[in-house]
Amino acid sequence: MPLPRIKVAKDKAELVQKLLDTKGSTGAFQTYADIVAFAASLGAKYQKRVPLKEISQTEPAPISLEIFISRGYDRLIELIAVTDTQDIEILSTKDAIVQTTKIKIFEEYANGGLEKLAHELRGAVDYTERLVLILNTERFAPETDEEEFDLSRFL
Prior knowledge:
The chain is an all-alpha fold. It has one domain. Helices cover 50% and strands 3% of the residues. The chain contains six helices and two strands, in the order βααβαααα. It has helices spanning 13-19, 32-45, 65-70, 74-85, 96-120, 127-139; strands spanning 5-6, 63-64. Strands 1-2 form a two-stranded antiparallel ribbon. The model has no long low-confidence stretch (mean pLDDT 84). This is DNA phosphorothioation-associated protein 4.
């Protein structure tokens, strides 16, 4: 049985192409799989899961799961699926329906992450520079302790 393919929404295809590092571009990623994995991580972080309406059939065409596995992203796919479903049974490798569900969850988070990226990169000339700024903002964001009760809001 052939491995499934990870699909990209048609309305996000142009953004994905621009994020790819090619001659004369300001893209930051080496492969489409890298872009989709980053977008899925971003979508999961912000809990932005958006169903795909229309699938891109040209550039980027659906990407074989084998590419994600070879780049080590299979664990990311599983982690996002377990986090979303809160069910360890999603890690089963024998059930084709479970495999399809994992892929669908990953694709939808990637689509949500691409929406977030499109918003963040709007107007940017150099995508690499803007991505570094986004990552640094996350890295150096002030930590908030949600468990501590803050009385200052009542003053």
